[in-house]
TrEMBL record, chains A, B:
Keywords: Hydrolase. Residues 443-542 form the Non-reducing end beta-L-arabinofuranosidase-like GH127 middle domain. GO terms for biological process: carbohydrate metabolic process. One of its GO terms (molecular function) is hydrolase activity. Pfam families: Beta-AFase-like_GH127_cat (PF07944), Glyco_hydro127C (PF20737), Glyco_hydro127M (PF20736). InterPro entries: 6-hairpin_glycosidase_sf, Beta-AFase-like, Beta-AFase-like_GH127_C, Beta-AFase-like_GH127_cat, Beta-AFase-like_GH127_middle. Residues 545-659 form the Non-reducing end beta-L-arabinofuranosidase-like GH127 C-terminal domain. This is Glycoside hydrolase family 127 protein.
Length: 661, 661
């Protein structure tokens, strides 16, 4: 059980969060919002003290389970996970800087979780309070291991930040108990959870504790998934056909939870998008640790299928509301889309894990696309309102009146009864520092250009990196290195796909020809004896790009989307009037980017002249012959804003893919 | 109670069905299918003898209610109406020609209905068998008066065709009983049905029997609708909140059944499309008979809203599956559309009633549009398969995989458990002769150009009209008149909107200049002393029209649909390959119509050269910058077929609105 586990590759491990501090003109404000607004608000919500939100019951459930309050369980079957996600976010915030008051509150939550833990290590307030005899009888639907996974992630984050082992001990006791319940051995359950999460959490627990059994249990859950005879069928029959979410029929719609095939045989991303990418994240984790090439190949196939066939230009995934799911190749409707914020966060997890296995810039490009567009779109500019669904085209009147849009909101919402997205945004942004740099041997990779400081330990030496940039808006980045003595190492700098290889490099003020350097898998490798105070300046070309969708995508046919740097752009009614479908972007239109410091927190807008269809002599007819329709085209000034900034000025039409000529 | 009821106008009454015989190159085959295939098949279905269909239980329910069989009620709450619609269609078939075997079967059904009638006159097998104590406790949901309405319509049709009064007596007893239950008087129910139908049926019963109380009861139901305090609320409370279709919440979603406002205050067509047009039909009926101008104004407003804001180019209505409903102005999605066949049939009823009040060609134009496109699309070329939903764009893979299309079928279906559409098509086509001619004083209107013979009684005289035409394909019509002696009257011939006023008139072989005649409300009036043997030839210009949707319709932006004569055209994969969204119709494309006798029963196809987007150097990327996308355009031959003929060659893509330049 303790034989060393082979690795697929020397991994490029990301610098841990406590070694990276973000000071960035774009991101610092979002992280501040997480710290000052989202996490405190969420704490109030968890304690049922937000009058305008449905009560969460989450803290109360724990108190009842701990025997300290009386009452009934409240909320969803996975309500516990909201507390864990909050605690995880708190852990990340504390890793970036002290906050004694917050830590005191969090310590109290840790204590409460400890008191709610059952003698055998089990923690789940739904089953403890409502169905104490039915533990592990409905894995397909009831999120038992999912909640365990979030608790473990919280434990790892909080322990890593504070060094306090109490929550880690709680999580290990729970994980040990789970390990005693599940496994190949006779008498154990050969099951796995309907919502993947425990798998990636156990790998993190393994990383922190060094105990291989957690990695092995994760691998067991992955290996077991989708095998025949099918676990969901047998547990469904055992519990007499009782079902928790009848409208979804999870016990039989196997692809909904990616349980339709063994994971290594899955060629396409199917079902619930969040589950799919959480699963793929764990697959990449286990492949990296176990050296399982067939698992890695499966990850690559799923990745290729998602990014080449099933991803919106905003990095959103999940084309339909039913099952919050993927549909099929090239099916990417812009208006009835789901593109859940959490799914893009999961895609970022997956991308990060793939980057650790092989530093190939495509992973970071997709990570950046999801981060700068769908994820940051998920939260309002003041941190109080959120999108669950991130449409690429909205007609507000339709959202209320045509029920195919019931899931699409034209403005961000305050809080959700199924509150998965806001805490997920919080934990991602609070841990954003952990996505910027990774190292592999003597190479330091910069995947994201986000300003701040980082410390990299290279053998016995230490390198400090100070990144300053206004990258998102002007493509310019400066990296300054500090070290005690000169060091030979490679700085690997990601070349974003959107610059099309057009960029300048200056080292200590001296311009270099790019041909002096090697470019490998999308990274510019600067291999030299670095001196304290060395300074690298990068300037990536940031043209306004007219993007086209693959010709097989029927929803982008005849349309273009604008992109500049990491940002995808959109038209909003607030700037362009209503009836955006009448606007046409001619091929020869001159487009100019201009910074508007007072608009939506300061954004670079794109302006140009478009054509607008005029009604002319059109009368009350609904249909007319073209010749007699009297339609005309008039020139009109148009303003595009970055997609993430939409819906901050009240309800209005929005459109990413615009008609083009 | 017997005071004469004022009329809004001298009406133009349609010639009754037994005075019109259809012999038409296009329609006779459809009517033959109704007689030889649909009605016999439906009879087998009603008797649960169709192995591949879910059992109907409809005849069995009647037998159980008559005490002749034992068992439980089966089917939907409105199952009785299927028997009535069948009997109504049989009545129309018998009106057009004798069929002793069919009549014998139908007489048996009449007898059975008589035996199932309760002593007080009530007929409804659902309530009689399942909830005998709950009659009239759930008008909003349970279709009790709807079923009564269909029984009355069947009775009127069967009595009118055969002269046998038994079914009429049954219907009158039932209607008299209903009249004793509902009304303003104390002790009576102040209610009305959730699904309008009784209202128009009672007017027909009034027309056949001459008894004003049926008209007054119809008017009562219309007047009562949508008034406060709301009947649905009071009956909902009285029955303790019991609900029959919980997913629709009909008791509270008042606009679903057009009960949100008094009918005269309804400005827009809302809710379930079939109900809306059945209601409007009855409103027009009552307005015509009662002289109620405010009711007529409401009809005109609803008409205007539908045809100017909420109707597909195919004459389909109902933009969404949820509630089979209208949505809002200019919301006409082509792929998630509902456009139920029954709704277009109801629109035809409404149009016919408006034509009776004022012969204005727009009503007939819309009637023709719905008839030649959505209605006839509803049935396969062999009469065995049917569309409930009539989409304007289909991507078959999406129908199975993206659940926003769950209601859209890429091929016609055999029979439905809620079998409303096939019998509705049957009864409409079997009574099609009743939609062709109407007369007002000394004017004979020809609304539809359908070949066959008709007899018109003009005072003491009789005029025979023999129409022969290949109108639908070539725009040519010949009318030959026979009469005993010369007669002075006006022949009013509809000028279809699609000819844009371009047509030739020849009388007895002599060409006339159109300016010789008056054109009134879209009808060419030929006022002369007609002689036996007179012959009028019409030749309407039938250009291929590139149609545009109103600029406010976002779903037709940048697209055109082809129309030629009454037919809207579409592209099908069978002729044009897949990925129809890649095809573009340039403005200058030369389009040619050509008759293909062996294709789909003989159709005029439209051919021309279109452009098709080629992938060129596009690689595995999902998004590329336009300049580097390597997209190209190649010329491709395209073939359009009439919309009604689609989906007769297996599943494949179909598209009405095609991209244009």
């Amino acid at each position: 059980m303790t034989t060393p586990i082979p690795r697929i590759n020397p991994e490029s491990l990301f610098l841990p969060l406590n070694k990276v501090r973000i000071e960035d003109s774009f991101w610092s404000e979002y992280i501040r919002l997480v710290r000052d607004v989202v996490v405190p608000y969420q704490w109030e919500a968890l304690n049922d003290r937000v009058p305008e939100a449905e009560p969460s019951f989450a803290i109360r459930n724990l108190k009842i389970a701990a025997g300290e309050e009386s009452g009934e369980f409240g909320g969803m079957v996975f309500q516990d996970s909201d507390v864990s996600k909050w605690l995880e976010a708190v852990g990340y915030l504390l890793a970036s800087g002290p906050d004694p008051d917050l830590e005191e509150v969090a310590d109290g939550v840790v204590d409460l979780i400890g008191r709610a833990q059952q003698p055998d290590g089990y923690i789940n307030t739904y089953f403890t309070l409502k169905e104490p005899d039915n533990r592990w009888t409905n894995l397909a639907e009831c999120h038992e291991l999912y909640c365990a996974g979030h608790l473990i992630e919280a434990a790892v984050a909080y322990y890593s930040a504070t060094g306090k082992s109490k929550i880690l001990d709680i999580a290990c006791r729970f994980a040990d108990y789970i390990d005693s319940v599940f496994g190949q051995e006779p008498g154990k359950l050969q099951g796995y959870d309907g919502h993947q999460e425990i798998e990636l959490a156990l790998v993190r627990l393994y990383q922190v504790t060094g105990r291989p059994k957690y990695l092995e249990l994760s691998q067991y859950f992955l290996d077991q998934r989708g095998t025949e005879p099918h676990f969901y069928t047998s547990e469904f029959e055992k519990r007499g056909g009782k079902t928790h979410f009848p409208q979804l029929d999870m016990a039989h719609d196997l692809s909904y939870s990616q349980a339709h095939l063994p994971v290594r045989e899955q060629e396409t991303a199917e079902g619930h998008a969040v589950r799919a990418v959480y699963m793929a994240t764990a697959m990449a984790d286990v492949a990296a640790k176990s050296g399982d090439v067939s698992l890695l190949d499966a990850c690559k196939r799923l990745w290729r299928n998602i990014v080449s066939r099933r991803m919106y230009i905003t990095g959103g995934i999940g084309s339909m509301e039913h099952g919050e799911s993927f549909t099929f190749d090239y099916d990417l409707p812009n208006d009835t889309v789901y593109a859940e914020t959490c799914a893009s966060i999961g895609l970022i997890f997956f991308a990060q894990r793939m980057l650790q296995i092989e530093p190939v810039s495509e992973y970071a490009d997709v990570l950046e696309r999801a981060l700068y567009n769908t994820v940051v779109s998920g939260m309002s500019r003041d941190g109080t309102r959120f999108f669950y669904v991130n449409p690429l085209e909205v007609h507000p009147e339709a959202c209320g009146k045509n029920h195919i849009y019931d899931h699409v909101k034209p403005v961000r919402q305050g809080w959700f009864s199924c509150a998965c997205c806001p805490p997920n945004i919080a934990r991602l942004l609070a841990s954003l520092g952990g996505y910027i740099y990774s190292s592999k041997d003597r190479t330091l990779y910069t995947h994201l250009y986000i300003g701040g400081q980082a410390e990299w330990r290279l053998g016995q030496d230490q390198v400090q990196i100070n990144q300053s940039s206004n990258y998102a808006w002007d493509g310019k980045v400066r990296l300054e290195l500090s070290m005690d003595a000169a060091l030979l190492f490679t700085l690997a700098l990601r070349i974003p796909e959107w610059c099309h290889g057009q960029f300048n490099v200056t080292i200590n003020g001296v311009a270099h020809d790019i041909s002096e350097f090697t470019v490998e898998d999308g990274y510019l490798l600067i291999d030299r004896l670095w001196q304290d105070g060395d300074m690298v300046d990068l300037a990536f070309a940031m043209p306004i790009m007219r993007m086209k969708g693959h010709p097989n995508v029927r929803h982008t046919a005849g349309k273009v989307a604008l992109q500049r740097g990491p940002f995808v752009y959109c038209l909003e009614e607030a700037d362009n009037g209503s009836q955006l479908h009448r606007m046409i972007l001619p091929r020869e239109a001159e487009l100019v980017a201009r910074f508007e410091p007072d608009l939506l927190g300061g954004i670079e807008v794109i302006e140009g002249t478009m054509l607008r269809e005029t009604s002319g002599a059109w009368n009350d007819d609904l249909y007319r012959e073209e010749e007699q329709a009297g339609l005309g085209l008039s020139e009109t000034r148009a303003k595009f804003i970055p997609y993430y900034a939409w819906a901050n000025r009240g309800p209005g039409e929005m459109m990413v893919w615009v008609r083009s000529l």
